[in-house]
TrEMBL record, chains A, B:
It is an enzyme of class 1 (oxidoreductase). One of its GO terms (molecular function) is peroxidase activity. It holds the Pfam family Dyp_perox_N. It comes from Corynebacterium pelargi. The keyword Protein biosynthesis does not apply. The keyword Signal applies. NCBIfam families: Dyp_perox_fam (TIGR01413). This is Dye-decolorizing peroxidase.
Length: 395, 395
C-alpha cells in the first residue's frame, strides 16, 4: 500500500503530464497518477492498459443540488481511489492497494446542462445528434448525461474502482452502458510506443505529444469558443467502431497497407521509411502511381494543407468480446475510440466527414456508437475547484 | 521477437513447471512458456493475467480424418504462437512478437469420442449432464465437443492467438461460446501469491503447488480409472459462477468472513493468523462458539477427514462484463471457474455436492454454466505424440 506521503504531495501543474520514459514498468501496481491539477488526468496521461467507459443518466427527479452532491462525492472517491486509498464507505481496503496508474475522468453530456438549469453555460459545440451517413448507430451506445472514463493498468483494480463509483452514485445516476477496452499489458512493450489495433495497424502516430501540442489541440483556453468555466477542460467524443476482421483478413498485406496508407510493420507512410517520417502525397513509384492512395485512411484523416489545425488526440482502445450466440462471425472486435479536442466543429467533425465520405477502410469498419461530452477542468483539493464542475454548479 | 534459439530448446519434463519466483516481471512480453512436454502447458503453469476459454463444436459431417487434421493444425499453430513465432498462413508477424506467457490448452468433450468412433477410449467420468439442484445453467455456457483454454499476460496477444486458432479451425469447428476472464496484471503483484476474486476473497489458497501434489491431484497416471492414452492428461471442468456483488456488499465484513470461513485481509482461516495456517474446526471463541462456521465455504470445500484426496486445482479467473441493458444491477460479475483433477467423481463432484447443499455463499453466487473435458496429454514435436490426442486418433 502507498504510504501517507503520496497523498500529501501537492498538486502541481505537471500532475497529468506523460510519465517518465521507460521500456517496461516493474512496479506498476504501486504507481499512482496525481488526481488534482490544471487538467483532469486520463487525457494527457499515457493510456493505461485497460479501459472502462461508463455512460450514465441522471435519475428522474435529480436536480442541481443532487448533481452537486454527486460530483462532490465522486471527486472525493476518485481522488482517493487513484492514490490507492480506501474511499469513504468502502469495506474493502485490500482492493485498492494497487492503484496501477488508475485515472478517473469525468464529462458532462448536453442534457446535464438542462437538468442543472445552466443552458447558458453549455458549450455551443455540445450536441446530442452526431451522425454521419455511413453510421449504423445503436441506441445502446448512445448519448448519456454523464461519462466516466476509467483507465488502469490492472483489470482487478479497474473492476473495483468502476464498481465503487457506480455504487457511490447509485442514488443519482443509472448506468446506460459500459464500454471495455484494452491495449498491451504493462511490461509487454514500451508504453510510449504507438499501440497496434486489431487490424495490426499502429494507431495514434500523429497524436499530440508535447505540452504545446496538447495546448493547441486538446485543452480549452480563452481563445476557444467555450464558456469560461470550461477553461482547462476538453471535448471527448466516444465512438464505438466495429472492425470486421473476418473480411479484413481476406486481404493481402499490400491491399491492407494501401487502405491504411502506411506500412504494417513500421507504420511508416507508404514511400517512407520510419513511422514518424512526413507523408509525401506527391511521391510516385516507377509506374508514376502515387505511393499513398488519396482515399487511404491516413490521407483523409490528415489535416488538409489549408486547415492545419484539424488534429486531435486519439485515445482508442481495442475491444474483443464474444460474438452473438449462433453467429458465424469469428469475432466481435473493434475500437472504443475516445478522442479529445478543443472544439469538435473544427476537429473531429470535419475529419470524420471526410472519412465517412471516402475512407477505403469503410469497407471493414462501421461506427455503431456515438456520444459527446464536455470534459470538465481539473480540480484542486484546497482551491477554487474542489470537485468536478464546481465553478459551473456553484455559479 | 524471440530468436531462433528459443524454438530449438528441447522439450523437457519441467516444461510447464511453475516459473521462477519473482515479485514482478519487467519483460513479460518476451516470456515464452515451453509448449511441448509430458503435460500440456496452462495447467501447472502460473496463471497468466488474461483468459479466453473457447467452447467449440465439430461441424456437421466432420469425422475422424478431419478431427485429426484439425488437432494437427491446431497443435502446429499453438506450438508456434506460444513461442512468439508467426504461424503458417498468418500475414501478421507483428502481432506475435510478444508471447507474454501465452499457453493454449486443448480438451475433448464427450461427443468428440462418438464422432471419431472411439467410444471405448472415452474416460468413464466424462459426462455431459453435470447439474446440481441449485444450478441455474444456461445453454449458452454448456457442454461442447472441444475446448481451448488460452491464457496470456497480454490482452492484445491473447486476442490475436484466439482469433488465429478460430480461423485456423474454421472448416472443422464452430465457436459456441467464449468466456473471458482476468487476474491482476503482470507487475502488479507477486504472481505466485493467491489472487483475490471480486468478493475480495483470496481464492486458491489450498491449491496444489509441488510436483507431488500435482501428481496426486491433477495428472492422470496408470493408477487412475482412465484409458491409457490419457496418461499425463487431466480432467477440466469449466463452471461459470455469477457473483451478486450488489447484495454481497450489503454485508458487514464479519458476515462476509463467516460466509467464507477466512479473514478477508490475510486469507487466514478464522481463528488463525496466516493464510497457510491449518484450519482448526474445533477451536471456539470466548463464548464457546466455533470460529469457523460448519457451513462456511471453506469448511465445505475442504476434504472430509476420511476423504483426504478430495482436492483439486482451482484456476479461476474473474469476469466483469456490462450488465444487460436496462438492468438495475450495478455489475455483471463472477468467476470463470476452471478446475483440474484426475477424476471428477472423486474430486469436483463430491465437493460441489456439499457446496450446493450447504454453502453459505450460495446466497450470493449462482452457477450458470457447466462443461467437462478430457485434457489430452502433452505433446512432443519429434516424439510419439506430435499433436494433441495423436495416440487416441492414430490408434
Amino acid at each position: 500500500m502507498l504510504g501517507g506521503a503520496a497523498m500529501l504531495q501537492p498538486a502541481v501543474a505537471l500532475a497529468n503530464a506523460p510519465q517518465p520514459e521507460s521500456g517496461a514498468d516493474c512496479e506498476v501496481g504501486s504507481k499512482a497518477v496525481p488526481f488534482d491539477g490544471k487538467h483532469q488526468a486520463g487525457v494527457q496521461t499515457v493510456p493505461a492498459a485497460h479501459l472502462n467507459v461508463l455512460g450514465l443518466n441522471l435519475r428522474a427527479g435529480v436536480g442541481k443540488k443532487d448533481a452537486k452532491r454527486l460530483l462532490s462525492l465522486w471527486t472525493e472517491d476518485a481522488r482517493r481511489l487513484t492514490q490507492g486509498q480506501n474511499p469513504l464507505g468502502s469495506l474493502e481496503p485490500e482492493m485498492v492497494q494497487h492503484p496501477s496508474n488508475l485515472t478517473i475522468t469525468c464529462g458532462l453530456g448536453s442534457r446535464f446542462f438542462d437538468i442543472v438549469d445552466k443552458q447558458d453555460q453549455r458549450p455551443a459545440w455540445l450536441k446530442e445528434d452526431l451522425q454521419f451517413s455511413k453510421d449504423q448507430l445503436k441506441p445502446e451506445w448512445g448519448q448519456t448525461d454523464l461519462v466516466l472514463q476509467i483507465c488502469c493498468d490492472d483489470p482487478v483494480m479497474l473492476a473495483f474502482a468502476t464498481r465503487h463509483m457506480l455504487r457511490s452514485g447509485v442514488d443519482y445516476v443509472q448506468q446506460q452502458w459500459l464500454q471495455q477496452g484494452f491495449l498491451n499489458a504493462p511490461g509487454v512493450k514500451d508504453p510510449k510506443a504507438t499501440p497496434r489495433n486489431l487490424f495490426g495497424q499502429k494507431d495514434g502516430t500523429v497524436n499530440p505529444r508535447s505540452e504545446d501540442e496538447f495546448d493547441q489541440q486538446v485543452w480549452i483556453d480563452g481563445e476557444d469558443d467555450a464558456p469560461a468555466w470550461l477553461e482547462g477542460g476538453s471535448c471527448l467524443i466516444v465512438r464505438r467502431i466495429a472492425m470486421n476482421l473476418d473480411t479484413w483478413e481476406q486481404l493481402d498485406r499490400e491491399s491492407r497497407e494501401i487502405a491504411i496508407g502506411r506500412t504494417l510493420d513500421s507504420g511508416a507512410p507508404l514511400g517512407q521509411k520510419d513511422e514518424f517520417d512526413q507523408a509525401d502525397y506527391d511521391k510516385t513509384d516507377e509506374y508514376g502511381l502515387p505511393y499513398i492512395d488519396a482515399r487511404s485512411h491516413m490521407a483523409l484523416a490528415s489535416p488538409p494543407s489549408d486547415k492545419p489545425k484539424e488534429k486531435l488526440l486519439r485515445r482508442a482502445y481495442n475491444y474483443d468480446v464474444p460474438p452473438n450466440t449462433g453467429s458465424e462471425q469469428l469475432s466481435n472486435a473493434g475500437l472504443v475510440f475516445c478522442c479529445y479536442q478543443k472544439d469538435p466543429r473544427k476537429q473531429f467533425i470535419p475529419i470524420q466527414q471526410r472519412l465517412n465520405d471516402g475512407d477505403r477502410l469503410n469497407e471493414w469498419i462501421t461506427h455503431t456508437g456515438s456520444a459527446m461530452y464536455a470534459i470538465v477542468p481539473g480540480t484542486q483539493e484546497q482551491g477554487d475547484e474542489p470537485y468536478w464542475a464546481a465553478s459551473l454548479l456553484e455559479g
